[in-house]
User: Which sequence fits this backbone?
């Protein structure tokens, strides 16, 4: 036992939090989450929340799955750690490599393990340069990414990401990374139709390649659906055009699957949903449903062949690359996803139900657009929905809705003037109803407050 009442004070005294206004947090007190069960979490006061965000887009199989705890305990007892350097491995790690690649389609037969999604992005960033150098094109080094993309918090990850508020801290991006526009029709589409806008933004990639010279460009990276930017679902014309350009211009395509992977869109991976053919796919989060930290990069045959047969020794890796206990958790997680047919469930049942309920929030005066694919939903708050006018100062608007949702027992994330949802894939129909009910209540309360 420990003095729960003191935890907030201890936290304020010693814990520096990621992505948190720490001064405010220390004044208000940290929320301490004690327990999870299914789609619910419970804080230290015993208050129950429906977690509409699956932790941080990751608890796909829901909380409290004893099967994972048992698999982890068994592996801990048998072999708590070994590395994958210098030609060694452990059985869960190897079995996981086979299982994950079997879900990723015929292009992917290899994976490089990491401890996180950020490390996965750093890994392909180096691997792409190593690949081009090995095939006699060492000058193909620049990576094109997107404004408001998110690819992690390491130096390369934050540079690949296009978040201004991250670039401003630490003088990023590093050289060799440039950004183009995002397919955010509601905010930036102007008078164009979504289809026209999707093509226009995709063609920024072609223009950037021309500007830099094709011989200097290594890769283009994007999330299948931008997550941290606010669940920005691209117009239908966007991905086919990106895929076409990458192939035509001999640029590697990287789909960052850290959020979209493992069933969130009703397919195993987001690139399968959009029908594109990436060369690398960084993964993490849903790989273990967040139960233990593990990530990796799916590496297509084109790259793996050169890496194995030409490069031989890729001088890169992490102490926890393919950690056996994390791998055991991931293996059990994938077994559950398969056995409970969670991917199919999202595609054919609960994802469609969620789309109906989440989509209906667009009827609210305060909501310009509410879209989703599978169990990934984005909602645009608008000052005037008739004219598609956004709030002059979007930042506090979403937080207002989020706080009302929290007070009523629902976790949603806010980014500026967008609300983000990504519940566990095991969410039941009546829990989707509950999510929609509280979201509407929060919208009502925030709208009233804004108009007062
Ligand atoms: N890529 C995407 C698309 C993400 O959403 C995230 C995290 O949210 C990352 C990479 C970074 O993953 P991690 O936080 O595990 O380093």
Assistant:
């Amino acid at each position: 036992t420990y003095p729960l009442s003191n935890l907030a004070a201890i936290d304020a005294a010693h814990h520096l939090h990621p992505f948190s206004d720490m001064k405010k947090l220390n004044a208000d007190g940290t929320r301490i989450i004690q327990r999870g069960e299914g789609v619910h979490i419970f804080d230290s006061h015993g208050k129950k929340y429906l977690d509409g965000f699956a932790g941080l887009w990751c608890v796909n199989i829901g909380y409290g799955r004893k099967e994972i705890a048992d698999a982890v305990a068994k592996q801990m007892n048998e072999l708590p750690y070994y590395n994958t350097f210098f030609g060694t491995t452990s059985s869960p790690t190897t079995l996981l490599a086979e299982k994950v690649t079997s879900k990723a389609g015929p292009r992917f037969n290899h994976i490089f393990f990491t401890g996180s999604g950020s490390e996965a992005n750093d890994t392909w960033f180096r691997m792409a340069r190593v690949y081009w150098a090995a095939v006699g094109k060492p000058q193909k080094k620049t990576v094109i990414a997107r404004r408001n993309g998110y690819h992690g918090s390491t130096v390369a990850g934050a540079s690949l990401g296009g978040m201004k508020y991250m670039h401003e801290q630490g003088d990023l991006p590093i050289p060799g990374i440039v950004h183009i526009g995002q397919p955010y029709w509601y905010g930036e589409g102007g008078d164009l139709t979504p289809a026209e806008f999707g093509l226009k933004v995709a063609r920024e990639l072609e223009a950037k390649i021309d500007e830099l010279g094709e011989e200097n460009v290594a890769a283009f990276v994007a999330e299948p659906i931008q997550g941290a930017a606010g669940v920005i679902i691209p117009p239908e014309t966007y991905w086919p055009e990106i895929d076409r350009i990458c192939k035509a211009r001999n640029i590697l395509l990287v789909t960052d699957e850290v959020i979209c992977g493992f069933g969130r869109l009703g397919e195993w991976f987001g690139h399968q949903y959009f029908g594109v053919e990436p060369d690398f796919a960084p993964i993490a989060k849903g790989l273990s449903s967040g139960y233990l930290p593990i990530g990796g990069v799916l590496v297509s045959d084109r790259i793996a062949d050169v890496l194995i047969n030409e490069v031989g020794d890729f001088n890169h890796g992490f102490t926890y690359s393919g950690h056996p206990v994390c791998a055991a958790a991931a293996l059990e997680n994938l077994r559950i996803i398969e056995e409970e047919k969670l991917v199919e469930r999202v595609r054919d049942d609960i994802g469609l139900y969620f789309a109906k309920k989440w989509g209906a929030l667009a009827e609210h005066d305060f909501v310009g657009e509410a879209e989703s694919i599978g169990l990934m939903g984005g909602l645009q708050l608008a000052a005037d929905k008739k004219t598609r006018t956004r709030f002059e100062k979007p930042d506090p608007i979403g937080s207002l809705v989020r706080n009302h949702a929290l007070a009523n027992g629902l976790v949603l994330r806010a980014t500026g003037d967008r609300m983000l949802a990504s519940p566990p894939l095991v969410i039941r129909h009546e829990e989707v109803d509950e999510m929609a009910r509280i979201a509407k209540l929060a919208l009502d309360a925030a709208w009233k407050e804004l108009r007062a």
